TrEMBL record:
Protein name per its UniProtKB record: Solute carrier organic anion transporter family member
GO molecular function: bile acid transmembrane transporter activity; sodium-independent organic anion transmembrane transporter activity
Taxon lineage: Eukaryota, Metazoa, Chordata, Craniata, Vertebrata
Family: Belongs to the organo anion transporter (TC 2.A.60) family.
Gene: Slco1c1_2
PANTHER family to which the protein is assigned, alphabetical: ORGANIC ANION TRANSPORTER, SOLUTE CARRIER ORGANIC ANION TRANSPORTER FAMILY MEMBER 1B3
Organism, scientific name: Origma solitaria
GO CC entries: basolateral plasma membrane
Topology class, membrane: Multi-pass membrane protein
Length: 277
């Protein structure tokens, strides 16, 4: 009982609210950004533009891991304590890095990156009549945009109708389920692999984040960009793009099974895996 104590700081509430605001700001970028490209770009160039959008989106986490690696080398109270008085190193299990510094740098960068969006026109001149027909039909992207607009509408008018149209689109619903499965595996990979490297290979938090940022995310971004170029070169339609996506996903999952053969012996922990004696 003497080891139990109530948390004395409620700063986690500010972090929670900050992440909620960040999520609200990030949500429109992908659905509305893709719809913006789909409406105003030439049809043969859309795959490359969308691939560039996703590639840049993958570069963000890569730089985030590198920034986290740098911040983890700095003591959590950097700027408030004398560096000469710190007697532990980042390899010490008691070391806590300056995790808060990444939020300040990332927030400032996001604010600066958002400024150019204020100068985008509400409408652009469309390249041809083909896009008029394309924007007039209810594509999954446009349906998703309707759903987003209804979601933030003050009166939530026709929300149920829009939601029904989105979920009633079988192609979009299937794509949504597939994306959920893909992101679930990808997020688990990024969340636990750095900790796995720390525990099993004796790496510091800083070096684990650096290795993940340099080895895991760049190939994903490169793959997205190459996929867009391939689709443009061979002018794939819906059926061709579906076959291409299925083939690449199947090969990816087959190769991912090799992770099941990677492992190390567990550490001997007194009281858990062996007796205290």
């Amino acid at each position: 009982a003497g080891c139990e104590k109530e948390p004395s700081s409620y700063m986690w509430i500010y972090i929670l609210l900050g992440n909620m605001l960040r999520g609200i700001g990030e949500t429109p970028i992908t659905p509305l950004g893709i719809s913006y490209l789909d409406d105003f770009a030439k049809e043969e160039n859309v795959p490359v533009y969308v691939a560039c959008l996703h590639t840049i989106a993958m570069m963000g986490p890569m730089f985030g891991f590198l920034l986290g690696s740098l911040c983890a080398k700095l003591y959590v109270d950097i700027g408030f304590v004398d560096p000469g008085s710190i007697s532990i190193t980042p390899q010490d299990s008691r070391w806590v890095g300056a995790w808060w510094l990444g939020f300040l740098i990332g927030g400032a960068a996001s604010f600066l990156a958002a400024i150019p969006f204020c100068f985008l026109p509400k409408s652009l001149k469309k390249p041809g009549e083909a896009n008029k027909d394309k924007t007039s039909r209810y594509s999954p992207v446009i349906l998703l945009c309707i759903f987003q607009c209804r979601l933030i509408c003050p009166f939530l008018s026709d929300f149920y109708t829009s939601l029904k149209k989105v979920l009633g689109n079988r192609m979009y619903f299937t794509l949504l389920c597939c994306s959920l499965l893909q992101f679930s595996g990808f997020i688990g990979f990024l969340t636990y692999k750095p900790k796995y490297m720390e525990q099993q290979y004796g790496q510091s938090t800083s070096k684990s984040n650096f290795l993940i940022g340099m080895t895991s995310l760049p190939p994903v971004g490169l793959g997205m960009f190459l996929g867009g170029l391939i689709m443009k070169k061979y002018k794939m339609g819906i059926i061709g793009a579906t076959k291409f996506s299925f083939t690449m996903s199947f090969v990816s999952y087959a190769i991912s099974l090799l992770h099941l053969f990677v492992g190390c012996d567990n550490y001997v922990v007194a009281g858990m895996t062996v007796s205290y004696e």
